[in-house]
């Protein structure tokens, strides 16, 4: 039975590594996965899902406003797809998450989404909020804070190395921009402004 999955975490937890391993497992068993990633996140190259540990795979991209139900329906018309994998799922729009849920329900294809739960301000991304509401199953990909506790939050660093408290929700970056922290150390870093 097909389901909508949401694998979530902070930055640098290995979400893309888990996605790539799962897609590899399907291929190894002769089944075809279909990989999607956000069009504007081209850190690894356009249409590429890559992990910091050096593995990667080509993927199709999704853009804002695109109908993902129709996209998946068209892809399934070309041949069987065992599972759909969506990287950077926090960048999905609410309506796109509903379209993925519809694809699960009406097209019978499992969809596994991987993304951040919260931004650097401690706020849910719209795509993540919709996935938390609609996913059949959720799994946390864990990473740790510098203190050894589970990291659940992330801070954005400015060019001067100082923690930023304001700015656009979306700014593409990696280890040079974001640091994963436990809630206590996140609160300390942002000045406990809550």
Structure description:
With about 190 residues, the chain is of the alpha/beta class. The chain has a single domain, classed as P-loop containing nucleotide triphosphate hydrolases (Rossmann fold, 3-Layer(aba) Sandwich), CATH 3.40.50. The chain contains 5 helices and 11 strands; from the N terminus they run βαββββαβαβαββββα. Strands 5-2-6-7-1-8 form a 6-stranded parallel sheet, with helices on both faces. The chain has a 3-stranded antiparallel sheet with strand order 10-9-11. A two-stranded antiparallel ribbon has the order 3-4. A hairpin with a 5-residue loop joins strand 3 and strand 4. Helix 2 packs parallel to helix 3 and helix 3 runs parallel beside helix 4. The chain is globular, with a radius of gyration of 17 Å. The N and C termini lie far apart (about 40 Å). The model has no long low-confidence stretch (mean pLDDT about 85).
């Amino acid at each position: 039975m097909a389901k909508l999955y949401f694998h979530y975490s902070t930055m640098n937890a290995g979400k893309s590594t888990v996605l790539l391993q799962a897609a590899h497992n399907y291929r190894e068993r002769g089944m075809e996965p279909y990989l999607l990633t956000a069009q504007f996140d081209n850190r690894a190259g356009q249409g590429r899902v890559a992990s910091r540990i050096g593995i990667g795979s080509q993927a199709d991209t999704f853009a804002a406003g695109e109908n993902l139900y129709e996209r998946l329906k068209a892809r399934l018309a070309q041949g069987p797809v065992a599972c759909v994998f969506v990287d950077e799922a926090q960048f999905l729009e609410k309506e796109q998450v509903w379209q993925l849920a519809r694809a699960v329900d009406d097209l019978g294809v499992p969809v596994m989404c991987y993304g951040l739960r919260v931004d650097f301000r401690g706020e849910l991304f719209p795509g993540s909020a919709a996935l938390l509401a609609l996913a059949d199953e959720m799994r946390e990909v864990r990473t740790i804070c510098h203190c050894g506790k589970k990291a659940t939050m992330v801070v954005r660093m400015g060019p001067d190395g100082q923690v930023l408290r304001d700015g656009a929700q979306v700014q593409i970056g990696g280890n040079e921009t974001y640091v994963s922290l436990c809630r206590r150390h996140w609160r300390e870093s942002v000045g406990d402004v809550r």
